[in-house]
Records
---
Amino acid sequence: MFSMKTLSGTDKQIAELIAQEQKRQVGTIDLIASENYPSRAVREAMGSIFGAKYSEGRPFRRYYAGMEFVDTLETLVENRVRKAFGIDETWAVNVQPYSGSPANYAVERGLLQPGDKILSMDLSHGGHLTHGSPVSLSGIDFKIAHYMVDKTTYRLNYEEIAKLARKEKPRMIITGYSAYPRVIDFEQFASIAKEVGAYLMADIAHIAGLIVGKAHPSPFPHADVVTTTTHKTLRGPRGAVIICREELRKQIFMKVFPGLQGGPHNETIAALGVALKEAMSPAFGRYARQIVKNAQALAKALQNYGFEVLSGGTDNHLLLIDVSKRGIAGKEAQELLEAAGIVLNRNAIPFDERPVFNPSGLRMGTPAVTTRGMKEKEMKQIANWIDLVLGEPARAAQVKKEVATFCRKFPLP
Ligand SMILES: Cc1ncc(COP(=O)(O)O)c(C=O)c1O
């Protein structure tokens, strides 16, 4: 448990809420594909005194005094990003974005003019809000055309995407998703983008840790710009990174600061540095591969219980199942499983006929349970509980007790 000695003495209310949240996390199984538990070392850096420092500007070109250690820190972390992704100085790195959404918007506004066209994956097929959803500024500022997954395989169909790109002539193509369980062929995307004269942006928020751990192919050198969050499979603090070809640096980085942001969160940058050092270790490579093995084991076990796993399985950290075939809606399934201590989210599935608020699918991911040390055997157990609870909802309370006992064997970092 993280010590809260000082906090408990000064603010019992907040200390109590943190303690309750910690208890919830310890006693439940987290299958939310975008979540993970950073190490203690990462959390220590997150709570460090770097948070007290303002540092608007770029390293060694600041608007504030007192920069000697912040400049060294930010430069070190930028270089660790290059090392982790195996790229050189021809790639410009910015570790200042507060999170994935502003990072994506900075890139879009940096490379495009309002009214320009983006070609991206439809939200209900696995894309992200910031890839041009009508409720996101990205969908308000730009014209959007969407590609979808194939109706029979539920996979990307590169020929169809190429056809659409020729027809739509976008200025930017976005790849990288929130709910796509298969390998992305960045090289094919790059060749499509090149043919139509579009920038290729790869948003690797979900799979960054798999890429660094060599459990998924890299978007380098194929994409023109890569964005990522740092808190999902990469297991760092909440934040984001933009990496672009050196020649695009100015127009993109100006949109981060002063375009969208003020002072960088230096404590987050410090914690990202720690996470990157961890991610470059052999143990992290094993972790990344285990995430995938666990997702595949979970998919297989669920299939054995008769669940439909979309696209037939997974190559990465997540999977989608269609629960509507079992006569249950996504929202109800999510709530029942939460009552049993299994935390995941309902999700639209491609070509979903149900409303977004109560769709047909569930999304499950294995980064967090793998951090706790769970393996294939535990995935089978989890699938068994999912089947029990969705088949017989009255069992939720009993399963919740079993889950709490089971979780004791797998402590949080
Ligand atoms: C693919 C993708 N990009 C961007 C984001 C946005 O990140 P944030 O929630 O940090 O703004 C997410 C978040 O889940 C995501 O899945």
---
Amino acid sequence: MLQEIAPHVYHNEFQNPKPRETDLVTVFDGRGALLDGGRYPTVTRMRKLGVSDEDLVYLFSIDDTAFFLLWEVTDAVRGGLEMDRVEACRTMEGPYMALAGATALHLYRWYRANQFCGCCGTPNQRDEKERAMRCPVCNAIVYPTIAPAIVVAIRDGDRIVLTKYADRATPRYALIAGFIEIGETMEDTVHREAMEEVGLKIKNLRYHGNQPWGFSGTLMLGFWADLDGDDTITLDRQELKEGVWVRREDVPETPNPLDLTHTMMELFRKGLDPKD
Ligand SMILES: [Zn+2]
């Protein structure tokens, strides 16, 4: 999965190191990432494009490589790098580039959405002691925002519910998923989403594991569940275009999945889901 990068180590402690020549820089512009030959540009490359070290915000390190975010994207940077989809990091060479890209994207979107104080409208400042944006006038503070969401594999013996989203051009089969609402427990969300999306009652909830998924700013929490009663699927057609019971041997294979959903689908397909 995305976060499984051993023996490499992700370091998230807040610090303010000076950029070194071989450190890497993530550059986002609208919906795209700006890359250098399909890779994150180095600090040396950015300096050649006229970027000063003061414009580089430290994000995190993997092993001893620091990753920075370019704060202001200039025309010289746009002209010197090539635009790619933000998801390009998923197929980038290197076992941890996908985690780096997703996490940098999550932080970029958070910084961008919090440039101004939500209480009084004053431009926010980056806090120097912790990862936070602080208003210099009213002192309101915003910490990195993570939206928890659940994914649930609903089983009935050797069958599982698979769905396809309505709003994707070429959707893959996925599991039931949804954001946790304010005031809910994780378990409340699992039951609610199962009922809302496919009209099924479930029981025997079992926590599987979790995954940071920066592409959507979420922390995904995975659950196994069993059908409780009637197996008739009633689809939420606004959100889904398909919802079906699929036999274990017919679950489509996903080699080396990065995401929790397809990791759980693979476990079910191979008969490795928990049985009691
Ligand atoms: Zn303020």
